[in-house]
Amino acid sequence: MADIKGTLSICRRAGKLIGGADEVKAACRRKEARLVIAASDISGKSLKEIKFICDREKAPLAVAPETADDFGACIGKRWAVVAITDPGFAKAILKKLSSD
C-alpha cells in the first residue's frame, strides 16, 4: 500500500492543501485543485458529490487507501476529502497511489 501521509503532511505545512468538502468543491470551481483525494471511508453521498464537481471542473480525483482518521493523524485535521493545489505535490501523490 502506498503511503501518502508524509507527502500530505509536507503539503499541509507548505500551505498547498485544502480540506473539507465545501472548501474542496470551491477550490475545484476556482480551478485551484490539481488533485482531489478522498479517504477510503468517505460516505457514498459525499463521494458522489465530489465526483460530480471533479468531473465538471476537470479536476483529477483519487480515492486513497487511508481513512479520514489517518488523514487527521498526519495533517492535524480529520478531513474525508482534501485538495492539493500544487502540481508537483499532486504528481508525487498520484505516482505513489498508482504504484499500488
How does this model look, in words?
The protein is an alpha+beta fold and 100 residues long. The protein has a single domain (5-98), classed as 60s Ribosomal Protein L30, Chain: A (2-Layer Sandwich), CATH 3.30.1330.30. The chain is 52% helix and 14% strand. The protein has five helices and four strands, in the order H-E-H-E-H-E-H-E-H. The protein has helices spanning 5-13, 21-29, 44-57, 68-75, 87-98, and strands spanning 17-19, 35-38, 61-63, 81-84. It has a four-stranded mixed beta sheet, with helices on both faces. Strand 2 (35-38), helix 3 (44-57) and strand 3 (61-63) form a beta-alpha-beta unit. The longest helix is centred in the middle third of the chain and has 14 residues, at 44-57. The mean pLDDT is 93.
Gyration radius (Cα, Å) is 12 Å
Number of strands: 4
Distinct helical segment count:
5
- Strand residue percentage: 5-15%
Summarize the structure.
By secondary structure, the protein is α+β, with helices and mostly antiparallel strands. 52% of the residues lie in helices and 14% in strands.
Secondary structure topology:
Blueprint: H1 5-13, E1 17-19, H2 21-29, E2 35-38, H3 44-57, E3 61-63, H4 68-75, E4 81-84, H5 87-98
Parallel strand pairs: 2-3
Antiparallel strand pairs: 1-4, 2-4
Relevant terms:
4-stranded mixed sheet; 4 strands; 14% strand; 60s Ribosomal Protein L30, Chain: A; 100 residues
